[in-house]
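Cross-posted from the bioinformatics board.
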Amino acid sequence: MRNDRIAVFVRESRKAAGLTQAEFAIRSGLGLRFVHDLEQGKETVRLDKVNQALAMFGMEAVPGRIERKAEDEQP
Amino acid sequence: MRNDRIAVFVRESRKAAGLTQAEFAIRSGLGLRFVHDLEQGKETVRLDKVNQALAMFGMEAVPGRIERKAEDEQP
DNA sequence: GACTTTTATACCCGAACGGGAATATAATTA
DNA sequence: TAATTATATTCCCGTTCGGGTATAAAAGTC
């Protein structure tokens, strides 16, 4: 599993909005299965669906510099 | 066609690197067809492939605020 | 600890992605 | 303008996504 940035963003935004995956699926017009997969960081999802989810929060997928997690840093 | 941010970024980065679509396809391990589709802004591409392309420039798909183009602005 | 809600998996299957390769069209260059 | 190179488009087709639904597991509540 990877692609945490988008997965984490969607999950946290959804929770912040007080929605369950099921509710979010309905409101966004996406399938529950997809919402789950997306939040799990599934890498092979389709970009249009990802954007459909991000659009719920005024966001979209854009290029961003890859950044290491703190744990991976060289001391 | 939509998803210009990623499409434009890949196209311009590739050209800046002095690569043709064919060369870029080979180096990135992606299909020529996909590279073309991506640069055309095809929306239904798979995220892992998009990231595979962006990774060539140290980038990845991340959530970003949707921004209108200047032309769409209300005067 | 029993009950309710939410999240995680599984299955079936139509729809569509993407690779490779061939060809057409457009853009560069000599 | 002819020749060369790059980009766009098309075909065949194996692989896989994602919807819907059912169920299991986990998390949260009283």
